[in-house]
Amino acid sequence: MELLGHLHPFLVHFPIGILVIACVMIWIQAIRKVDYQSSITTLVLLGAMAAILASISGYILSISGDYEASQVALHQWWGIGTSFGAVILYFFQAYQKIISLFLFLALAITGHLGGELTYGANYLFERKKTSSTTQTKLQSLDSAQQKITIDTSVQVVNSAKYFPFQDEVLPILKSHCFQCHSSKKQKGKLRLDTEAFIKKGGKEGKILWEGNPLKSHLYSYLILPEDDDLHMPPSGKKQLTSRQIAIIRRWIEIGAPFGVYPMHATAYPMHASDISGHASDLFSHASDISGHASDIPKTMELAAAEPADILEVKAHGLSVSPAASHPAGLSLNFVNVKNLDPPIWQAAKKIQHNVLVMKLTKRKDIQVEELLNFTHLQQLNLEQSNVQDKDLERLVQLPHLEQLNLYGTAISDQGIKALTAMKALKVLYIWQSKLSQEGLVALKTARPDLTIVEGKISFSPPDTNRLKVIK
Amino acid sequence: MGHRHTDPFRLSHPDLEKLNRGLDRRDFLKKTAMGFGAIALNGLLASNQGHGQSIEEQIMQALPRIAPKAKRVVYLFMSGGPSQFETWDYKPELSKRMGQDLPDSIRKGQRLTGMSANQAILPVAASAYGFRPYGQSQTWVSDLLPYTAQVVDELCVIKSMFTEQINHDPAITFFQTGHQLPGRPSIGSWMSYGLGSENQNLPAFIVMVSKDASKDQPLYARLWGNGFLPSEHQGVQFRSSKDPVLFLSNPEGYDGQDRQEMLAYLKQLNQLQNESWGDPEVDARIAQYEMAFKMQTSVPEVMDVSDEPQEVFDLYGPNSRDKGSFAANCLLARKLLEKDVRFVQLYHQGWDHHDSLPKNIVNQCKQTDQATAALIMDLKRRGMLEDTLVIWGGEFGRTVYSQGKLSPTGYGRDHHPKCFSMWMAGAGVKAGTSFGQTDDFSYNIVKDPVHVHDFQATLLHLMGIDHEQLVYKYQGRRFRLTDVHGKIVKGILA
Fold it and tell me: How far apart are CA B224 and CA A145, in angstroms?
């Protein structure tokens, strides 16, 4: 029985095809004065039988439950009407010209209603999005810039309030999933058109596990190979792009929020783990290494850096990477920078609050005033640079500085006072600086809590006797 | 994919159009393969330097964020399979059983290699060298490693490594690429692909092979190959001879200006080619030429050790002035790491001691011990050990029984995959600890086994990468360094 229902999309083609030919032949016969009547009678009989069969199979399909009854009703009655019309046409040949007109109309309407059920409402008149014209001028931008352009095509909503579901996820579901999983159809007993339905899941149970995309069928079925039976959307339907898949993944990862998502807590909207609120709990549950999220100190309230600013900093040749100590924290490395020109600092200042680590190894052109803008600095690598004792006095103003690398610099005993005053300082590298032994002792006395890496290495030479076989 | 459609040239001819469609499909697959990379919605770290960069960083952005403890890795690969008995796995009980046949209760029918399977007896051989506890951690270290012993409080010794491979080539390929058959990307290539290069003037993955080691087992360039990843991620081998990188310097009588112009034109040609064909390998080629040009200045600079003080050479040991020796390579490795090269891999061959092990292993240790310890301490005093991961280890271990005749001072050891020792030091690992335990024969693991895939997963984790997320789709399947395995070894994480 169920099979007959599933055959409906196949069977409907017969009444349409046969009856349309019959209608056309009726009119050719009338206009061209030729005798097709025996063929017409056969065709109309066949068509009427096919229409009845299609109606029966359609009814069986409709009671399977995948379709909303109210949507089906119209199509159903027009279908039955069409079958009825075909029977009338067979028995009332005298009026066949008039009847064939009505039948043709009924066929068209029934077919269209059926199409709407399968392909969605307004399918026929929906305007296809035209792809960008080929005559767009050849872009002379380098490929990297083009990539950036591509990136920004998914808009980041940079407001304090952010609705990732409404803004990013829902449009994808609407265009790719609603056709079969909404008020119109509920394939697999699943609807995706409201929060309640998404949370409820389908006939196999829950499809959404907040924070765990791989467990959530809502995501995992998307990434199955296209020829897999479970792959969604089914093979042949319009597929999701990798970006759309990624959006759904990220949305689940951040805890699948249906409402407002606080933007300030995370460096990357729809991306990083949230450090406050429930999303972070979910995230760490989902994570393979529970605990790694917790080793990030939550003490510092830190807003996310603007992606555009980070791009600009990178455009000046700086390496920007995530810092380990805070989710919104960044690490700046100047290894690729030739000269520390004002524009570079200008750019870096745009992300000044997010910079927790700064590496200025071997630079001889450091202006220490510039560093003071980066008030959240926790680690500062100034090894083999031009920093002087007097510069250290300025650096005292960095309240979070925990680690300072001054090896190979001209720092001398005069800098001890400043170093002592750096309250947050925990680790200090001073190998090959000008610090004297007395100065070192003084510093250790003043700051016994400080780990000072002096860099003295004294290997004791091996006892060559022990290198002989012992037996 | 957008910009390809905007290229009028590609759509102006029916043949090209056909080709175009094919390419778009491939391009699409490729982008899908880039994993969920596109989620770098904001292009947060999209680089404007060099080709392909932003895709890599997009991938990173798509990955769950793990705090990256390590920024750099130096992997000291002891090729040939160093014996755990004479280095890190102290088995004092063995001397009492010297010469006795290996009990079946230990061997449990384990299949042996053809080299020792036919021996009438499998005589237990105790280490010919003594062990002593060192450092605050009181870790037992062989007398053959007197220098490394002095830095043992920096190390996390894993005594419970095991692999599935029993012969050199599959075992080393398995370690380096996650699969025993050649063709997959090396760890360093995965890192380069996943994290990109911090220093734009040097490759992210650099390899050096000791020239002073005995070449008992061969190494192949594919061990640091990029496999199916774009070619710019392959390891670049630095050699000890006049040209550290082959064909890098200008031909004689050809000045730099000419070369620069030639490369600029070549790039234009490649870009034309790229626009009409869209083959990612053209991107790779452009990137490699750019890198090669930058390396014309950056490599000689970094390979020049003339400004290193005598104290440094003393630290790395007597061989450190001998270009191409393990000690000299360790010193260079430090210089490369100082330049923020992401992954430096050193190979030292000669650990395959099937016979005369007591005699041969002394030299092996001598060549490597001091420089290894020096590298750790040198990184430490520069403040680099905290974000550099140092790894020491081979492809498998060696048997407790002697291969061939056992005499008090002469014995050999066959390959043994079921347990062996490695160590890690620096970024993110518990310093001054040992992990895992083997039985009294160092034949089976009794506690905390660490599979090669587990090691790889942990390595990626320390670099801030979830090993399950760093995926590349190739020939219809998604590939990972850890295949479908790998568990992070939490016990060694600091």
Answer: 31
Chain B residue nearest residue A146, CA to CA: B3
Which residues are A404's β-sheet partners?
A: A380, A428
Q: Are A258 and A312 in a shared domain?
A: no
DSSP code per residue over A260-284: -EESTT-SSTTTSPPSSSHHHHHHH
Domain count across chain B: 1
Q: How many CA atoms lie within 13 A of A303 on its CB side?
A: 11
> Are A273 and B49 within 8 A, CB to CB?
no
Q: Do A383 and B40 touch (CB under 8 A)?
A: no
Q: Where are the alpha helices (DSSP H) in A212-275?
A: 217-220, 242-253
- State both tokens at A287: 């994570």
Is there a contact between A333 and B8 if contact means CB atoms under 8 Å apart? no
What value does the CA radius of gyration of chain A take, rounded to a whole number of Å? 36
Please give, rounded to a whole number of angstroms, the shortest distance from the CA of A118 to a CA of chain B: 27
Q: Which residues of A touch B294 (CB under 8 A)?
A: none
Q: How far apart are CA A350 and CA A304, in angstroms?
A: 12
| A361 CB within 8 Å of a chain B CB | yes
Domain at A410, CATH number:
3.80.10.10
Q: Both A281 and A396 in a single domain? A: no
Determine, for residues A319 and B198 on separate chains, whether the beta-carbon distance falls below 8 Å.
yes
Residues of B in contact with A383 (CB under 8 A): 382-383
Specify if A296 maps to a domain.
no
Q: For residue B16, is it within any domain?
A: no
Instruction: Encode chain A (471 residues) as per-residue pLDDT tens digits.
Output: 778 888 898 999 999 999 999 999 999 999 988 888 999 999 999 999 999 999 999 988 888 767 767 778 889 999 999 999 999 999 998 898 899 999 999 999 999 888 887 776 666 766 544 333 333 333 333 333 333 333 333 333 333 446 778 878 888 888 888 888 888 778 888 888 888 889 888 888 889 888 777 788 888 888 877 777 788 888 777 788 777 887 888 888 777 888 776 544 333 434 333 223 333 333 333 333 333 333 344 456 777 777 778 888 888 889 888 888 887 888 999 999 988 989 999 999 999 999 999 999 999 999 899 999 999 999 999 999 999 999 999 999 999 999 999 999 999 999 988 999 999 999 999 999 999 999 999 999 999 999 999 988 889 988 877 777 765
Cβ–Cβ < 8 Å for A454, A430: yes
Residue A337, in any domain of the structure: yes
Extended beta strands in A323-408, E state: 330-333, 355-359, 379-381, 403-405
Closest CB from A148, A272, A383 relative to B382: A383
What chain B residue is nearest to A275 in terms of C-alpha separation?
B65
Those of residues 35-94 in A touching chain B at CB distance below 8 A are none
Q: Which of B36, B71, B315 sits opposite A457 (nearest CB)?
A: B315
Do B187 and B227 contact (CB within 8 A), yes or no? no
Residues of chain B with Cβ-Cβ distance to A315 below 8 Å are: 48
Does the distance separating the beta carbons of B32 and A333 come in below 8 Å?
A: no
Look up tokens 């001819």; give the residue: B13
Q: How many structural domains are present in chain A? A: 3
Torsion of CA B466, B209, B397, B163, to 10 degrees: 30
| β-strands A330-333, A355-359 pairing | parallel
Is A64 inside a domain boundary? yes
Q: Do A322 and B7 touch (CB under 8 A)?
A: no
Largest interatomic CA distance in chain B = 84
Q: Choose the final residue of a domain: A93, A119, A145.
A: A119
Assess if residue B217 is contained within a domain. yes
Q: Is position B4 within any domain?
A: no
Question: Between chains, do A245 and B36 touch, taking CB under 8 Å as contact?
Answer: yes
Can you spell out the DSSP letters for A110-154? HHHHHHHHHH-TTTTTPPPPPPPPTTSPPP-S-HHHHHHHHHTTS
Provide the domain limits for residue B97: 72-244+306-492
